[in-house]
Amino acid sequence: MKALLHFIVGFLILSPSLGELCNTEDKKVLLKIKKALHNPYHLVSWDPKTDCCTWYCVHCHDTTHRIDQLNIFSGDINGQIPPEVGDLPFLDYLVFRKLTNLTGTIPPTIAKLKNLVSLTLSWTDLSGPVPGFLSQLKNLDYLDLSFNKLSGTIPSSFSSFPKLRTLHLDRNKLTGSIPESFESFRGEVPDLFLSHNQLAGKLPVSLGKMQFRTIDLSWNRLQGDGSMLFNTQTMVIILSRNSFEFDLSKVKLPISLVWLDLSHNRIRGSLPAGLARLQLQFLNVSYNSLCGKIPDGEELGRFDSSSYFHNRCLCGAPLQPCKLK
């Protein structure tokens, strides 16, 4: 009996792969990815002699043991996103983030990842267009392509995601206008982050039909009317550093609003009285053409003059007192 036990123990020692949970095909793909990235020290734990479910930046499903998460971030990694990432069919979470030497374009093979729920390719040196083929990822809930060097226009197909709840395209070099297709999202209206690009033109009028909870269009070249973005569910509106022109006094502010930045535009009129009833965490209407008295209210009293200055004739605390007529 002891001899048999010694044989089994010795066999397991000599054959560690028998105790390995990682799928062999997934392991081969990961090793190809490592090679394509020039075998960086960041992935030193990716040793073919060990179980890939224990590797850094990798996660295996608890029951199937297939690779379901690949999270490569904050490392000294050079090269392009390896096309082999598309050969991990059970991925639902893919991240390449804070890799400033990651270059090239977004590979089409990512569209093969039909189970993908979250895709983050941000804070890299990726360039080229925002690829329309990403809209083939019908299970995508979160898409973050921010802080890159992506150029061109926003694909109109991005309104066809049936499950998307958050879309980050901010901090790129995108041009053109906001697609007309964004007037009708196939699924839930996502939180939309398009700031720090070179987007231009007027907003589609029917964009006002969309119940955006959060929308950030700041630091672009947009113009015209932006008042249609205020709706009953809006919580965050950031339109600063554009050329929007509308009468703020005619805007009905939703009670849900907690963050409002309209600074550095051409907005006219006066501040709505309803502003004082909101539970705002942030407010900035500076550098516009607003006039009239700042509404009284304890909530608005929390904001200093920098929230209001450089307007045409706004007055009242915390600015100069209004002149008596």
Short account of what is shown:
The chain is mostly beta strands. The protein has helices at residues 2-14, 24-36, and strands at 58-60, 67-73, 79-80, 93-99, 102-103, 118-124, 127-129, 142-144, 149-152, 166-168, 173-174, 191-193, 200-202, 214-216, 221-224, 236-238, 243-244, 259-261, 268-269, 282-284, 289-293, 313-315.
List the main descriptive attributes of the protein structure presented here.
three-stranded parallel sheet; elongated; Leucine-rich repeat, LRR (right-handed beta-alpha superhelix); eleven-stranded mixed sheet; mainly beta; 2 helices; 325 residues; 22 strands; disordered N terminus
Structure characterization notes:
This protein is mainly β and 325 residues long. 8% of the residues lie in helices and 24% in strands. The strands form 5 sheets. It has an 11-stranded mixed beta sheet, with no helix packed on it. A 3-stranded parallel beta sheet has the order 7-9-11, with no helix packed on it. It has a 3-stranded parallel beta sheet with strand order 13-15-17, with no helix packed on it. The longest helix is centred in the N-terminal third of the chain and has 13 residues. The N terminus is likely disordered.
